[in-house]
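Repro:
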Amino acid sequence: MQHRRDAVAAVARNEPSENALVYCCAVLRAEPGNAADPDAVAVLVEDRQVGYVPREVAPAVARWLAAHNDAYGVLVDAVISRGSVLPDGRVMRYEMAIDLPNGVEPQKTPPRWPIPVRRNGHIRLSLAADGGYAGEVWLPPLHDEVLHPDGLADIYPPPDGGPVIAFAVTKRKLGRYFIGTVPREDWVSRYGSTRSAQLIDVMGRSATIRFDPK
Protein backbone atom coordinates (compact mmCIF):
# COMPACT_ATOMS: atom_id res chain seq x y z
CA MET A 1 0.00 0.00 0.00
CA GLN A 2 1.20 3.52 -0.76
CA HIS A 3 1.24 5.14 2.67
CA ARG A 4 2.07 8.32 4.55
CA ARG A 5 4.57 7.47 7.24
CA ASP A 6 3.50 10.16 9.70
CA ALA A 7 -0.17 9.16 9.41
CA VAL A 8 0.56 5.44 9.81
CA ALA A 9 2.87 6.14 12.77
CA ALA A 10 0.06 8.05 14.49
CA VAL A 11 -2.06 4.89 14.30
CA ALA A 12 0.72 2.39 15.08
CA ARG A 13 2.15 4.24 18.11
CA ASN A 14 5.20 1.98 18.23
CA GLU A 15 8.42 3.11 19.86
CA PRO A 16 11.11 4.04 17.27
CA SER A 17 13.26 1.06 18.31
CA GLU A 18 10.48 -1.53 17.92
CA ASN A 19 8.42 -2.79 15.01
CA ALA A 20 4.70 -2.09 14.96
CA LEU A 21 2.14 -4.86 15.15
CA VAL A 22 -1.38 -3.45 14.96
CA TYR A 23 -4.61 -5.28 14.10
CA CYS A 24 -7.20 -2.73 13.01
CA CYS A 25 -9.99 -1.91 10.59
CA ALA A 26 -9.59 0.33 7.55
CA VAL A 27 -12.09 2.00 5.26
CA LEU A 28 -11.49 1.97 1.50
CA ARG A 29 -13.06 5.03 -0.10
CA ALA A 30 -13.06 5.83 -3.82
CA GLU A 31 -12.00 9.32 -4.96
CA PRO A 32 -13.54 9.73 -8.45
CA GLY A 33 -12.93 13.47 -8.22
CA ASN A 34 -9.18 13.04 -7.68
CA ALA A 35 -7.57 15.17 -10.42
CA ALA A 36 -4.32 13.19 -10.32
CA ASP A 37 -6.00 9.78 -10.59
CA PRO A 38 -9.80 9.31 -10.89
CA ASP A 39 -9.33 5.62 -9.97
CA ALA A 40 -7.65 6.49 -6.66
CA VAL A 41 -8.90 4.65 -3.56
CA ALA A 42 -8.02 6.20 -0.21
CA VAL A 43 -7.30 4.10 2.89
CA LEU A 44 -8.48 5.49 6.24
CA VAL A 45 -7.91 4.24 9.79
CA GLU A 46 -9.59 5.91 12.76
CA ASP A 47 -10.97 8.52 10.37
CA ARG A 48 -7.41 9.45 9.35
CA GLN A 49 -6.18 8.96 5.79
CA VAL A 50 -3.05 6.82 5.91
CA GLY A 51 -2.47 6.25 2.20
CA TYR A 52 -3.86 4.80 -1.01
CA VAL A 53 -4.53 1.37 -2.49
CA PRO A 54 -1.62 0.56 -4.87
CA ARG A 55 -2.11 2.15 -8.28
CA GLU A 56 -1.91 -1.19 -10.11
CA VAL A 57 -5.00 -2.59 -8.35
CA ALA A 58 -6.86 0.66 -7.61
CA PRO A 59 -9.02 0.60 -10.80
CA ALA A 60 -10.44 -2.85 -9.94
CA VAL A 61 -11.11 -1.82 -6.34
CA ALA A 62 -12.70 1.46 -7.49
CA ARG A 63 -15.05 -0.46 -9.82
CA TRP A 64 -15.97 -2.80 -6.99
CA LEU A 65 -16.78 0.16 -4.74
CA ALA A 66 -18.83 1.83 -7.50
CA ALA A 67 -20.84 -1.37 -8.00
CA HIS A 68 -21.73 -1.43 -4.31
CA ASN A 69 -22.64 2.27 -4.32
CA ASP A 70 -21.25 2.78 -0.83
CA ALA A 71 -20.85 6.49 -0.20
CA TYR A 72 -18.79 5.89 2.91
CA GLY A 73 -16.61 3.14 1.45
CA VAL A 74 -16.16 -0.37 2.83
CA LEU A 75 -14.74 -1.53 6.15
CA VAL A 76 -12.00 -4.19 5.90
CA ASP A 77 -9.58 -5.92 8.26
CA ALA A 78 -6.01 -4.62 8.14
CA VAL A 79 -2.65 -5.16 9.85
CA ILE A 80 0.15 -2.61 10.24
CA SER A 81 3.65 -3.96 10.84
CA ARG A 82 7.36 -3.02 10.82
CA GLY A 83 8.23 0.72 10.82
CA SER A 84 11.13 0.71 13.30
CA VAL A 85 14.27 2.84 13.17
CA LEU A 86 17.43 0.72 13.24
CA PRO A 87 20.42 1.57 15.49
CA ASP A 88 22.39 2.72 12.43
CA GLY A 89 19.68 5.25 11.59
CA ARG A 90 18.01 3.36 8.74
CA VAL A 91 14.23 3.76 8.73
CA MET A 92 12.17 0.65 7.97
CA ARG A 93 8.99 1.22 5.97
CA TYR A 94 5.67 0.43 7.57
CA GLU A 95 3.78 -2.41 5.92
CA MET A 96 -0.01 -2.49 5.81
CA ALA A 97 -1.84 -5.62 4.72
CA ILE A 98 -5.51 -5.24 3.77
CA ASP A 99 -7.99 -8.12 3.53
CA LEU A 100 -10.13 -7.84 0.40
CA PRO A 101 -12.69 -9.10 -0.49
CA ASN A 102 -12.94 -11.29 2.63
CA GLY A 103 -14.39 -9.45 5.61
CA VAL A 104 -15.84 -6.60 3.55
CA GLU A 105 -18.67 -4.73 5.25
CA PRO A 106 -20.50 -2.05 3.19
CA GLN A 107 -20.82 1.29 4.96
CA LYS A 108 -24.22 2.95 4.49
CA THR A 109 -23.56 5.34 7.38
CA PRO A 110 -20.35 6.93 8.72
CA PRO A 111 -18.24 4.10 10.18
CA ARG A 112 -17.88 3.52 13.90
CA TRP A 113 -14.18 2.92 14.25
CA PRO A 114 -13.27 -0.22 16.22
CA ILE A 115 -10.39 0.38 18.62
CA PRO A 116 -7.13 -0.93 17.05
CA VAL A 117 -5.44 -3.78 18.89
CA ARG A 118 -1.80 -2.74 19.33
CA ARG A 119 0.69 -5.53 20.00
CA ASN A 120 3.88 -3.65 19.31
CA GLY A 121 7.25 -5.17 20.10
CA HIS A 122 7.75 -8.78 21.19
CA ILE A 123 4.98 -11.28 21.97
CA ARG A 124 3.93 -10.66 25.56
CA LEU A 125 3.82 -14.03 27.31
CA SER A 126 1.90 -14.93 30.46
CA LEU A 127 2.42 -17.98 32.68
CA ALA A 128 -0.35 -20.61 32.54
CA ALA A 129 -1.44 -22.82 35.43
CA ASP A 130 0.34 -25.88 33.98
CA GLY A 131 3.66 -24.07 33.67
CA GLY A 132 3.37 -23.22 29.98
CA TYR A 133 3.29 -19.75 28.49
CA ALA A 134 0.85 -18.05 26.11
CA GLY A 135 0.51 -14.69 24.38
CA GLU A 136 -1.74 -12.90 21.91
CA VAL A 137 -0.57 -12.66 18.29
CA TRP A 138 -1.94 -11.56 14.93
CA LEU A 139 -2.06 -13.76 11.86
CA PRO A 140 -0.64 -12.52 8.55
CA PRO A 141 -2.37 -13.02 5.18
CA LEU A 142 -2.04 -16.70 4.21
CA HIS A 143 -2.87 -16.09 0.54
CA ASP A 144 -4.30 -19.38 -0.82
CA GLU A 145 -3.30 -21.36 2.26
CA VAL A 146 -5.16 -22.15 5.50
CA LEU A 147 -3.80 -22.73 8.98
CA HIS A 148 -2.74 -26.25 9.93
CA PRO A 149 -5.75 -28.03 11.51
CA ASP A 150 -3.72 -28.67 14.68
CA GLY A 151 -2.69 -25.02 14.91
CA LEU A 152 0.99 -25.84 14.54
CA ALA A 153 3.56 -23.07 14.83
CA ASP A 154 7.31 -23.30 14.16
CA ILE A 155 9.98 -21.69 16.31
CA TYR A 156 13.29 -20.51 14.84
CA PRO A 157 16.19 -19.28 17.01
CA PRO A 158 18.46 -17.36 14.58
CA PRO A 159 22.11 -18.43 14.81
CA ASP A 160 23.21 -14.81 15.28
CA GLY A 161 21.63 -14.75 18.73
CA GLY A 162 18.76 -12.40 17.82
CA PRO A 163 15.14 -12.72 19.00
CA VAL A 164 13.45 -16.09 18.54
CA ILE A 165 10.97 -16.02 15.66
CA ALA A 166 7.54 -17.71 15.61
CA PHE A 167 5.89 -18.77 12.33
CA ALA A 168 2.38 -20.01 11.56
CA VAL A 169 2.30 -23.36 9.73
CA THR A 170 -0.26 -23.93 6.97
CA LYS A 171 -2.27 -27.08 6.26
CA ARG A 172 -0.15 -28.09 3.25
CA LYS A 173 3.05 -26.96 5.01
CA LEU A 174 4.09 -25.02 1.90
CA GLY A 175 5.24 -21.95 3.75
CA ARG A 176 5.89 -20.33 7.09
CA TYR A 177 4.25 -17.03 7.96
CA PHE A 178 5.81 -14.66 10.51
CA ILE A 179 3.66 -14.02 13.59
CA GLY A 180 6.06 -12.52 16.13
CA THR A 181 9.26 -12.70 18.17
CA VAL A 182 10.33 -13.54 21.73
CA PRO A 183 13.49 -12.06 23.30
CA ARG A 184 16.30 -14.65 23.15
CA GLU A 185 17.09 -14.40 26.87
CA ASP A 186 13.44 -15.02 27.80
CA TRP A 187 13.26 -17.98 25.46
CA VAL A 188 16.39 -19.68 26.81
CA SER A 189 15.30 -19.26 30.43
CA ARG A 190 11.77 -20.54 29.81
CA TYR A 191 12.01 -23.12 27.07
CA GLY A 192 15.54 -24.17 26.27
CA SER A 193 15.41 -25.99 22.93
CA THR A 194 11.64 -26.06 22.27
CA ARG A 195 11.00 -25.86 18.52
CA SER A 196 7.21 -25.94 18.25
CA ALA A 197 4.10 -24.26 19.62
CA GLN A 198 0.35 -24.21 19.00
CA LEU A 199 -2.07 -21.53 17.83
CA ILE A 200 -5.35 -21.60 19.76
CA ASP A 201 -8.45 -19.39 20.11
CA VAL A 202 -8.19 -18.28 16.47
CA MET A 203 -10.74 -15.56 15.63
CA GLY A 204 -10.16 -13.89 12.28
CA ARG A 205 -6.70 -12.34 12.42
CA SER A 206 -6.43 -12.73 16.20
CA ALA A 207 -5.05 -15.82 17.97
CA THR A 208 -3.13 -17.02 21.01
CA ILE A 209 0.20 -18.81 20.69
CA ARG A 210 0.84 -21.40 23.37
CA PHE A 211 4.13 -22.98 24.41
CA ASP A 212 4.11 -26.15 26.48
CA PRO A 213 6.18 -26.38 29.66
CA LYS A 214 9.76 -27.65 29.37
